[in-house]
Amino acid sequence: MQRIDVHPTHTHGKFKLRRGNPAPFGATFVPGGVNFSIFSSHATSCTLVLFKKHAPEPFGEIPFPDEFRIGNVYSMIVFDLDYENIEYGYRMDGPNNFQEGHWFDKSKVLLDPYAKIIGGRDVWGTPPDWDDMYHHRARIAFDDFDWEDDRPLEIAPEDQIIYEMHVRSFTKHESSGIKESHRGTFAGIRDKIPYLKELGVNAIELMPVYEFDEFENSRPNPTTGETLYNYWGYSTVGFFAPKAGYAATGKFGMQVDELKAMVKELHKNDIEVILDVVFNHTAEGNERGPTISFRGVDNKTYYMLTPEGYYYNFSGCGNTLNCNNPIVRGIVLDCLRYWAAEYHIDGFRFDLASILGRDPWGAPLSNPPLLETLAFDPILAKCKLIAEAWDAGGLYQVGSFPAYGRWGEWNGKYRDAIRKFLKADTTVGEMAQRLQGSPDLYEGAGRAPATSINFITAHDGFTLMDMVSYNGKHNEANGENNNDGSNDNDSWNCGWEGETDNEYINALRHRQIKNAIALLMVSQGVPMMLMGDEMGRTKYGNNNTYCHDNELNWLNWDLLKKNNDIFQFTKNCINFRKAHPVLRNTWHFQNRDYVGSGYADISWHGTQAWNADWSEDAKAIAFMLCGEHAKGGTVEDNYVYVATNVYWDALWFEIPQLPPGLQWHVFANTAMPSPEDSWTPGSEPVLQDQYGMLVGDRSTVILVGK
């Protein structure tokens, strides 16, 4: 077949041009040139603006000829560009009428919504030139990364153990022990893969890693004068571009390769990568926010607007993306496909996902087209889709999120129940539901236990150490008079607010942390833990550290020595979960014996075997899992018995008897001092009294029958 060359047909000054391809959107390579394509349904004209990298002024501006527009898409091929050394943007002209929702202003250079690389914030925390006419600059991506034989891992959802982390916080502290240039970067995570392997997690969930502006709403701390940043990054500038400031090579524009190298190395070590994606709002904020991209390209299409032209604010961040507009659905779908295909990402967690199910006027849709499209998309078919099933507008959908058989949910009800139970403040009936994978929320809708992403702590709120150390939030360092952050923490300080030298209180706190980890790892569903909880990380009672680039957020690795008992306990519990498929069932328990073992798949007990106390004031609960029912009876496993006592005195538990030839062994007992609080799976000692045991005050015991 003869090769067909693409030749210029038009010129503009020194630039050689040709009619472009309207699809795909963005800047893509074609023979001899670059195809630029951008959508706007209300613009009257569009101009491509070209800069040399970092140059304050453009070296060329090329209006799209009218004949290059197809429908509402402006597309053009520009030949002979030095694509490695240029940045590009657009000027859009059109109506400027606030009440009608139009913000066109051809004096502004706009970022391409499909930009694959964005410059302008190349090195974290370096103040930009505020007089720059074009702050966030689109660059042209070219893919020459060698993935070798890498592909997404496709770990079964019920087998996942998720570790939520912030890229910069994970290794920025000098105690991380890695070379200084790698601290706080994708390369730093790669350096710490041996640690993640030792801990035993098999998925990391990264807080936003695409381009955002750390200087958005930056301000001095009124107390210390230290700069407060947009640190967490939940304010998107570009959905397709990795954050340059998170790359050790960001100043060289190599953030794409560095992130891909991190993903590739994690996959080699059987660790999946889940991205926290924010499609509910953008960095353009409300009516007083900056015009960066979407607002100037086609404001009325991309955002939910009131009849008066103001922004609906279901995100709590100033604006709300109009996600069920077909154009916006398209950009969300294109974005996720891009990350899955080009970066081999294994899954996505959707921030304030309930917004994605609202119509253009904010009403919840019964059959949201975006959620349905994502659930059935062929490219995303093996990706995990995880919803934060609520939003800032009051829509709470835990247990009722439109799932289409595909979506998992951050189970906020699990978090609340475990926290309350640990301080003896909820019923054992509620706890039983959460430990089983919340069948009361999911089974009736035909949704598996792995729908429930079980978590006790996350980036938003207290750490596990702070949950047992503070009764109230202490957010004064945020400069908002302690008014920000949630007041509903369901925490208990164990008798003293904050850090203390009291040995009894510190021992109780460690015990409560271990109780939380133990219950998390024996619950059906998918456990998710917060970075640093395994070593007793504290944020000193601040439950909303969104603005701090300091030790409030950075993980202090010296805690591994200080709180090594918590680390060893967590590591053992993770390995115990991985060793026992009975803890990772694919479907809900039936509370009956359907394999002929003589025992139900799950049975409930109290201080008396076979006689659970379901009363409102009960402070103890136990359950036994029959290993012959593991994975619906398709695999064999040991028996597992879990007893937890949240009462302030020790209680004697009568233990159910095993089939002949089997004995109970002690895997964990949080009342015992380290290292006898847990054992490496397979090395558990035999329980001395096979008929019963004393479970200490505020303690949890896990036995394995084998």
From TrEMBL:
<dbReference type="InterPro" id="IPR013783">
    <property type="entry name" value="Ig-like_fold"/>
</dbReference>
<dbReference type="InterPro" id="IPR013780">
    <property type="entry name" value="Glyco_hydro_b"/>
</dbReference>
<dbReference type="InterPro" id="IPR014756">
    <property type="entry name" value="Ig_E-set"/>
</dbReference>
<dbReference type="InterPro" id="IPR006047">
    <property type="entry name" value="GH13_cat_dom"/>
</dbReference>
<dbReference type="Pfam" id="PF00128">
    <property type="entry name" value="Alpha-amylase"/>
</dbReference>
<protein>
    <submittedName>
        <fullName>Isoamylase</fullName>
    </submittedName>
</protein>
<dbReference type="Pfam" id="PF02922">
    <property type="entry name" value="CBM_48"/>
</dbReference>
<dbReference type="InterPro" id="IPR048650">
    <property type="entry name" value="ISOA1-3-like_C"/>
</dbReference>
<comment type="similarity">
    <text>Belongs to the glycosyl hydrolase 13 family.</text>
</comment>
<keyword id="KW-0326">Glycosidase</keyword>
<dbReference type="GO" id="GO:0019156">
    <property type="term" value="F:isoamylase activity"/>
</dbReference>
<dbReference type="InterPro" id="IPR004193">
    <property type="entry name" value="Glyco_hydro_13_N"/>
</dbReference>
<dbReference type="GO" id="GO:0004135">
    <property type="term" value="F:amylo-alpha-1,6-glucosidase activity"/>
</dbReference>
<dbReference type="InterPro" id="IPR011837">
    <property type="entry name" value="Glycogen_debranch_GlgX"/>
</dbReference>
<feature type="domain" description="Glycosyl hydrolase family 13 catalytic">
    <location>
        <begin position="164"/>
        <end position="577"/>
    </location>
</feature>
<keyword id="KW-0378">Hydrolase</keyword>
<dbReference type="InterPro" id="IPR017853">
    <property type="entry name" value="GH"/>
</dbReference>
<dbReference type="GO" id="GO:0005980">
    <property type="term" value="P:glycogen catabolic process"/>
</dbReference>
<dbReference type="Pfam" id="PF21156">
    <property type="entry name" value="ISOA1-3_C"/>
</dbReference>
<keyword id="KW-0809">Transit peptide</keyword>
